Amino acid sequence: MSHPPGRPKEGSLPLGGKARSAKGVHTRQSQRLSVGGRIDRGATLRFMFNGRRYEGHGGDTLASALLANGVTLIARSWKYHRPRGIVGSGVEEPNAIVQLETGARTVPNARATEVALYDGLVARSVNAWPSVDFDLMAVSGLFARFMPAGFYYKTFMWPKRFWMQYEHFIRKASGLGTAPAAADPDTYDKMNVHCDVLVAGGGPAGLAAAWAAGRAGARVILADEQSEFGGSLLRERINGAGDGDPMRCSIDGAAPMAWVAQMIAELTAMPEVRLLPRSTVFGYHDHNFLTIAERRTDHLPSSQRNGARERLWRVRAKQVVLATGAIERPLVFANNDRPGIMLASAVSAYLNRYGVRMGSRAVVFTNNDGAYRSALDLAEAGIPVAAVVDVRGEPRGALAERARNAGIKVIANAVVVDADGGKRVRAVRVMALDAQGRGAVGPATVIPCDLLAVSGGWSPVVHLHAQSGGRARYDDNKACFVPGVSVQAERSVGACNGSFALGECLAEGVAAGAEAAGLAGVGDTAVPRAPAARDVAEAPLMPVWVVPSAAPISRGPKQFVDLQNDVTAADITLAAREGYRSIEHVKRYTALGFGTDQGKLGNINGMAILAQT
What we know:
By secondary structure, this protein is α/β, with parallel strands linked by helices. The protein has 13 helices and 32 strands.
């Protein structure tokens, strides 16, 4: 007799239940899928988190390994010390900030989503005392009404003679990690190089650009921050098009990662092409001078680290192709910070790249078609999807129809107005939208779940374009900022250019790579054939910057915009009421985007809420 969907079988541990193995390794109910993922299941790696021993596999990040062990409470927020779980899968992660290692090699404020797992790794939560599970500073949440945006500017001004006492406690409460006290034992080096074409980003657009430029004979540097190339394709199912599924993408008839492997093989064989994985292009200066930080040994156990730990590449490039991708935006609604609420793209990444299930019953909340991919990924992994809640009135795209055909309930013209739970989301409250789509009406429907995948659209990564001197422009149709006119010898392609369809990414990448090589004086002007991509067309999204609810923003439960710094929609509207109209001033007044993620998830939503206000 089968057990009810979403419930553990009799005698098994519930999600998050604790146990201890015979080897003394602290375990919870394993959330690792029996098959799938790009991890090396034959390589078992042992690590410690918050004083407890766990196990992971080669290819894991610290974040994926923790999720695989059923650890969902990772951190506490900065201001109210609310429970925080993992929300993303990459550089955009605002919550899972850890203190890595101890002693002279300790690293403060490392993102668990970017820390490659290695044997013997040691990490702990920050900003929580005495522990992340029981944080005494969480009492500050009881006084939240007395700590609105800018409260420190008003509260600590009087009496003036008490400032020295105020300052002591303010400084003690600020900050997250701890800087090392001992001298750094590692070495670091630098390289000065010239190239014809520098490609920043190793996703489909970046690979296509590097291939086209390298094929023309150009000296090419391809840099990507991840441990392997592929970008967004890394979160696709490994078998991809191999199962004949028309809803799965393919490139030249092959599964996406098979195409990536072919591209890497061809690029490696080109003598003038240099591949730099684990390398972040972090600076774009005058005269096409760019800086790259390469992490050379951080992914290895301490005993195996030989040579320079990091290398600074100082590159003078004739031409630059930016293929830095896009970051998925969250949706702003009441209690949207509960552990177990994650970006839909991150859910797919943990399922398909790392073979990890994040929950036992899911709800998907979206304003676009992309999140339906995650719903289908969940269903295919055997995780029940209670519903897809779509703010749009009639989601009739191919992906939405596929979800319905798979038995997934689609609730259109509705929003998630609240999430119930404490250290883990346990249910969501769903309400219908009114005819104008501006307010939530009718009774709330409660849907039990322990995973909520959210998607509010995509924000192109335009940072390097802006550093080069270019200005971003807002695209009303795509509801995002895209690169404007180039000032230096650079061009943007793929998702960072607002082109989210796979076919567009590949075509733009090939054209840009060939153009860059030609302008650098290498090869001819002929553009090679772009790989043929099969993808599913997506219907337009419906922008929702703050989810309508029954209660006003200033009176209802907190709707978080900046998850790390506890900046809410109410804080932004308060700043506007108090006369702050420039986004720079609002940022300073509310601490929006002040965290280690620098607002990668929250800033666009925050600017839009201010604009609406």
